[in-house]
């Protein structure tokens, strides 16, 4: 039997002394509320990061392979997709998927207004599952096998500006020599909340753009590369750069749309500072609680020393007392935090302004490594801080401790 733990258990569960009972409740409450706040902050922060990254990656992939050029034009110089990297990407374990795309600028014209947009052409290699979460109405264009499709997906913002609805047809004029136009049918509407995409981008058939550009079937603006481990994109980008043609360039989407990722990093730093402050307060509270418990149990300490108990045993009694209170606090903190996050994830009770936060509600990312890691971190830090106040018991003299009132 673990004697220090047995004494600690009896001490905590003792019904005598309303003051010590209140102190126990305060200790449990402070740890529970601190852990709950930290867990909610981390899971929501993870939800923000995951949602925004998925929105950006769904439009542009993790890496982009394009023709190396000094031009800033939206219409890129074509490259051929008849390459080993495109046709046999499965042999590279760090590549999850590759899909080709083509951009072309133009004007959407209705009777009431004209809007400059950028149409992104996609082919049959396009993975719609990566983008489907952004579709709020309709579907993706059906890419016919015999001829190109004139079906397009537009953003809710463009639809509102031009007063367009599902199923309507709209003319798109392409500025080129000679000028050309196509009548497009709206079969889907998407919304991301990100101005870089919603204000100018529509999605259509890549073969229509190839026909307009007088390109061959294997000519595209570039490839979007999706990685199995996006966190290693810097290293993988260098490796893929060695696989592409000499006149091609590999760009990282985190650099191309750096404003979103820098904003996330700023939020991440604020959360880390916030968590550090809460951990400090929780540790300080536990030290204060143990000091109070030691003062209240001074007579017990003197009695234990008088009958021959070692200092290490007495220190362990109060260490286990603090540890038991900490575990109770962790249990209730997890219960409150995970319960709150589950309710928010299912019912989406807390809304957000999509124009400012790029999403319409507070997201939650159920990262179990984060949940387990935070619990372990809190337990270890508080366990280490508990060793400090218990050292005072070794300096107490039995006679004075027994007579302490």
From TrEMBL:
Swiss-Prot/TrEMBL keywords: Cell membrane, Membrane, Transmembrane, Transmembrane helix
Keyword Transmembrane: yes
Broad class of where this protein is predominantly found: membrane
Keyword Membrane (UniProt): yes
InterPro entries: ABC3_permease_C (IPR003838), Lipoprotein-release_system (IPR051447), MacB_PCD (IPR025857)
Membrane topology, from the record: Multi-pass membrane protein
Transmembrane stretches, start-end: 26-48, 273-294, 367-392
Family per record: Belongs to the ABC-4 integral membrane protein family. LolC/E subfamily.
Official protein name in the record: ABC transporter permease
């Amino acid at each position: 039997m673990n004697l220090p733990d047995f004494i600690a258990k009896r001490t905590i569960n003792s019904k005598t002394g309303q003051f010590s009972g209140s102190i126990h409740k305060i200790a449990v409450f402070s740890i529970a509320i601190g852990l709950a706040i930290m867990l909610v902050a981390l899971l929501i922060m993870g939800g923000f990061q995951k949602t925004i990254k998925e929105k950006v990656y769904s439009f542009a992939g993790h890496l982009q392979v394009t023709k190396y050029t000094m031009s800033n034009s939206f219409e890129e110089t074509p490259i051929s997709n008849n390459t080993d990297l495109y046709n046999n990407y499965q042999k590279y374990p760090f590549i999850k998927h590759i899909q080709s795309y083509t951009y072309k600028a133009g004007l959407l014209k209705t009777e009431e207004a004209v809007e400059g947009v950028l149409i992104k052409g996609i082919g049959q290699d396009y993975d719609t599952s990566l983008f489907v979460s952004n579709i709020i109405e309709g579907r993706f264009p059906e890419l016919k096998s015999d001829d190109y499709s004139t079906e397009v997906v537009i953003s809710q913002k463009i639809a509102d500006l031009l007063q367009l609805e599902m199923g309507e047809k709209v003319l798109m004029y392409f500025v080129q020599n000679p000028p050309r136009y196509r009548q497009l049918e709206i079969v889907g509407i998407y919304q991301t909340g990100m101005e870089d995409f919603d204000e100018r981008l529509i999605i259509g058939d890549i073969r229509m753009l190839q026909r307009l550009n007088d390109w061959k079937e294997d000519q595209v603006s570039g490839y979007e590369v999706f990685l199995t481990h996006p966190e290693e994109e810097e290293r993988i980008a260098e490796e893929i750069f060695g696989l592409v043609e000499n006149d091609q360039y590999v760009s990282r989407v985190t650099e191309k749309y750096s404003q979103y990722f820098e904003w996330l990093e700023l939020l991440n730093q604020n959360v880390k500072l916030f968590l550090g402050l809460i951990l400090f307060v929780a540790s300080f509270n536990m030290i204060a609680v143990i000091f109070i418990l030691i003062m209240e149990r001074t007579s017990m300490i003197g009695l234990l020393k008088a009958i021959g108990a070692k200092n290490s045993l007495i220190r362990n009694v109060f260490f286990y007392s603090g540890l038991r209170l900490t575990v109770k606090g962790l249990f209730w903190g997890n219960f409150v935090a995970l319960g709150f996050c589950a309710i928010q994830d299912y019912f989406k009770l807390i809304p957000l302004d999509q124009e400012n936060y790029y999403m319409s509600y507070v997201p939650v990312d159920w990262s179990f490594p984060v949940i387990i890691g935070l619990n372990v971190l809190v337990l270890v830090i508080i366990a280490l801080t508990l060793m400090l106040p218990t050292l005072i018991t070794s300096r107490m003299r039995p006679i004075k401790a027994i007579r302490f009132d």
